[in-house]
Design brief:
Elements (H helix, E strand, L loop, with lengths): L22 E4 L11 E7 L10 E6 L8 E6 L13 E6 L11 E6 L5 E4 L2
Antiparallel strand pairs: 1-2, 2-5, 3-4, 3-6, 6-7
Protein name: Calcium-binding and coiled-coil domain-containing protein 2
InterPro entries: SKICH, UBA_autophagy_assoc_protein
Organism: Homo sapiens
Length: about 120
């Protein structure tokens, strides 16, 4: 029976217990034009293996737990992780899901256990 998942797995893991360097965010802009879609580019490091329920969230800077995401997208699993192009990935956030305020946000890659594996700066 297929399980329906509406919310991503989260965790109350404190920031000092995370492994932020296993997924690297690339080409992150200093700002994005309001009302437009945002494409998030990221790369898996050599020893990181993505899993089915991993996700990328947009978090307001200063977040404390992964439960504080603003919005999220499920990641797409590469067919062949040994292929170099499989390590380069992207997800697109549609404009209507994005924050409308002037706060600062960042991308975070969260694995299916709710552990942060990468965060943009």
């Amino acid at each position: 029976m297929e399980e329906t998942i509406k919310d991503p797995p989260t965790s109350a893991v404190l920031l000092d217990h995370c492994h932020f360097s296993q997924v690297i965010f690339n080409s992150v802009e200093k700002f994005y034009i309001p009302g437009g879609d945002v494409t998030c580019h990221y790369t898996f490091t050599q020893h990181f293996i993505p899993r089915r329920k991993d996700w990328i969230g947009i978090f307001r800077v200063g977040w404390k737990t992964t439960r504080e995401y603003y919005t999220f997208m499920w990641v797409t699993l590469p067919i062949d992780l040994n292929n170099k192009s499989a390590k380069q990935q992207e997800v697109q956030f549609k404009a209507y899901y994005l924050p409308k305020d002037d706060e600062y946000y960042q991308f975070c890659y969260v694995d299916e256990d709710g552990v942060v594996r990468g965060a943009s700066i």
